[in-house]
C-alpha cells in the first residue's frame, strides 16, 4: 500500500531562517511521482514542485530546493530565507502513474514570524 | 484566465438533502478529481475521471456521486447517504496521463460544506 508520512505537524521559524519540511513515503511501485503543494489560509492548494522516481537529481528553484533520496524513501523540501508569506500548510503527495490517485501526507503547518 | 472554478464557496445542507458542488475548468485538461479535506488532515480522493463519460471511485466514494458529461465540468453530489458531509471539498484537474508533467494536478479554490 502507498503511504506518505509528514512527521512534523507544526514548525515555527523566524523570518529569514531556512526551514526543511520532511516527507517519507512508502510504495511498491518502481515508477512513481512525488509532489509538494502549499495550502495558504485561503484553502486552495498550490502546486510547488514534482519529481519522477527515476530522476534523483536535486534542484533549486529560487528559494525552494528539494532533496529526493530513493534509498531512504524521502523527499524533503527546503525553503531558504523564509518569509512571512511562506506561512501555510505544506503537503507532500505520492502518485502511481496512470492511476489518477494522489496520496497525501497529513501536512506540516509552517509559521514564519516576522 | 485559465483555471478551475468551484461554486459555491460555502454550502449548507439540511438533514436528508442532496446537494451538488460545481467544478469547471477551462484548461482543456482531460482528467478531473474530487477530494475531501477534514480539519487538520490531508486530502482523500472521492472520485476521479480520466475522460468524458467515464469516472472511477476513489478511496471514500460512499455517499457521493459524480457525472462527467462535458470535458470542462465534473459536478459532485453529496447524497443523504453521506452521514458526515461537513468538510472542505477540493476539485482538481490534470492534463492527462503519461508523465509527471501531465499528471500534475491543479486545484480549485474549494467549497466548504456545512450541515445545518
Give a short summary of the structure.
The complex is a heterodimer of chains A (114) and B (116). Helices cover 0% and strands 52% of the residues of chain A. Chain A is mainly β.
Q: How would you characterize the overall build of this protein?
A:
The complex is a heterodimer of chains A (114) and B (116). Chain A is mainly beta. Chain A contains no helices and twelve strands. In chain A, the strands form three sheets. In chain A, strands 2, 5, 6, 10, 11 and 12 form a six-stranded mixed β-sheet that branches. A four-stranded antiparallel β-sheet of chain A has the order 3-9-8-7, with no helix packed on it. Chain A has strands spanning 3-5, 10-14, 19-21, 24-26, 33-39, 46-52, 60-61, 64-69, 74-79, 88-95, 102-104, 108-113. With 116 residues, chain B is mainly β. In chain B, strands 2, 4, 5, 6, 9, 10 and 11 form a seven-stranded mixed β-sheet that branches. Chain B has a four-stranded antiparallel β-sheet with strand order 1-3-8-7, with no helix packed on it. The chains are: A mainly beta (114), B mainly beta (116). Chain A binds chain B through residues 4, 33, 35, 37, 42-47, 50-52, 91, 95, 97-98, 100-102, 104-107, and chain B through 31, 33, 40-45, 48, 50, 56, 58-59, 88, 90, 92, 94, 97-98, 100-101, 103-110, 112.
Amino acid at each position: 500500500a502507498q503511504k506518505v508520512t509528514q512527521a512534523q505537524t507544526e514548525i515555527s521559524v523566524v523570518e529569514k531562517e531556512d526551514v526543511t519540511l520532511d516527507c517519507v513515503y512508502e510504495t511498491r511501485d518502481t515508477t512513481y511521482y512525488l509532489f509538494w503543494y502549499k495550502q495558504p489560509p485561503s484553502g486552495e492548494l498550490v502546486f510547488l514542485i514534482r519529481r519522477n522516481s527515476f530522476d534523483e537529481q536535486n534542484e533549486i528553484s529560487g528559494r525552494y530546493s528539494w532533496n529526493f533520496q530513493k534509498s531512504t524513501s524521502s523527499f524533503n523540501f527546503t525553503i531558504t530565507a523564509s518569509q512571512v508569506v511562506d506561512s501555510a500548510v505544506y503537503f507532500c503527495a505520492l502518485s502511481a502513474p496512470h492511476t489518477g490517485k494522489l496520496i497525501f501526507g497529513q501536512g506540516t503547518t509552517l509559521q514564519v514570524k516576522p | 484566465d485559465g483555471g478551475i472554478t468551484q461554486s459555491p464557496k460555502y454550502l449548507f445542507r439540511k438533514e436528508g438533502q442532496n446537494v451538488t458542488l460545481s467544478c469547471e475548468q477551462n484548461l482543456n485538461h482531460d482528467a478531473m478529481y474530487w477530494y475531501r479535506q477534514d480539519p487538520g488532515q490531508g486530502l482523500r480522493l472521492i472520485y476521479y475521471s480520466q475522460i468524458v463519460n467515464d469516472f472511477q471511485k476513489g478511496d471514500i466514494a460512499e455517499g457521493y456521486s459524480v457525472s462527467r458529461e462535458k470535458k470542462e465540468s465534473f459536478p459532485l453530489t453529496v447524497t443523504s447517504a453521506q452521514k458526515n458531509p461537513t468538510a472542505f471539498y477540493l476539485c482538481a484537474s490534470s492534463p492527462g496521463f503519461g508523465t509527471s508533467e501531465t499528471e500534475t494536478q491543479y486545484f480549485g479554490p474549494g467549497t466548504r460544506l456545512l450541515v445545518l
